[in-house]
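Reviewers of the previous submission asked for a worked example of the structure-prediction workflow described in the proposal, so we include one complete record here. The input consisted solely of the amino acid sequence. No template or homolog information was supplied to the procedure at any stage.
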Amino acid sequence: MSSLVETHAAEVRHGARFAFGRNWQRFLNTLNQERITIAEQSLADYLQQKRLDGLSFLDIGSGSGLFSLAARRLGARVVSFDYDPHSIACTAELRCRYFPDDRDWLVLHGSVLDRDFLARLPPADIVYSWGVLHHTGAMATAFANIEPLVPVGGRLFIAIYNDLGPVTDRWWRVKRRYNRLPVVLRWPYALGIIAAAEARSLLGHLRRRDLAGYLRAWTDYQHLSVRGMSRWHDWIDWIGGFPYERASVETIVDTFAANGFRLEKLVDRAAGYGCNEFVFRREAAAGTWIEQPVPNSQLLSRRFGIAALGLAPTPEGGLVGQLVNPWPNGSGAAPLVLHRDRLLGEAAIEPAGGVRIAPQVAARLQPDRGAVRLVAARVEDLPGPYVHVRGRMWQAGAPHLASLADDAAGPAEQRSPVFVFEDDRQLPLPHSLHAEIARRGAGRFSHWGAMVYFSTRDGSDPNRNRRRYRLVYPPPARGVDDFAGTAQDQRSMPDAARL
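From that input alone, the workflow returned the following structure tokens.
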């Protein structure tokens, strides 16, 4: 244990790690019964059961110990561990306050990267790690290490920072800089960042004549966070939280789907850089793929695709494999091959769920074959010339697809299935607010009413950049072909007009 403490202290001293436990110790000064009750309710809501009696609960990276306490109060047998010695002290303090000498709550000092330590822990009915694994410095290893701790039938509840590309890259630099500063300069640095962000938030509330709403964001944060947390301590944790990794929803789902986990609940922070929250139930042993769509994914391939596994080369240079789920017969749509955000061509569906990919398409899949998915979808050109609306936003008409468009009054799962592709790459941000399309561009788009509003990836004029813009969408059961001006079914298109 002493070596673990020394290693942690050295990492903090050299600016390689944030002292999370110190921040949690300050947070405990604000802990009251109301915060504890909110944490209990949050845990029960996510796990969709009011009590945890008779269940074992493993808290990986227990931090303040608040959710270990919540699980114990809900009746679970709890094992808590953390790498940070001050976090362990926090958790032990809560155990001492509320469950002294309790044999059903064990507090340990250990690392999720230490397989020997983990091997001594029994599998748990519920494995919980909220906002922890992305701070290990080896997130992929942490994922692999926790998988054996969840038995078939058990549940995994994790929260991982969302990946927003350049935005999250910038925050990585902010966090690293904070931890490399002398201690006396960290508070002024953090205060500057907080003041700038809070000033923007306050200004927005004032424009809406909602000063009370801004004040509630501070005074009632424990409720608004849905976890009983403190806005100030969350700010410090966010600015200082290093190491810092992140991943998309699709990456997390696929990582655990490959080892028998089915997604039960998802809170998707697609529009922000907070944590995506996942509850998985394990249905099968390691190495068993559990195919599942991500209903609100920003990627066509993950919202509607079917994974093609076991892809093997053919003598001609193509690939053959097996679809995880049956192919939807009678859709009247081509089997499109997608590799994440790239549309590569068509495949042939063979009997008994087989799939054959032609050599020219297979060549574009190398070397990452694991992300290959097939979608039954139609492809049509987005007709120009494109009309400049304002800023970086352009528009084009698609009246025959109006029945599929986004509806502000409709549920999220009924969002438009129409995606915009620039050449062979999907524009990355569907369902964007029009003000954001105009102001920020970068491939944001929206299918609204009879129009498609979009921005190019690089801010160029789509009428002049010599790129091809197309709409790709799964055919609905009814509605689209009833509109006048329907695009010709792609099955009757000349080959040159297809992919």
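DSSP finds 16 helices and 20 strands in the chain. We consider this example representative of the routine output the project will generate in years two and three.
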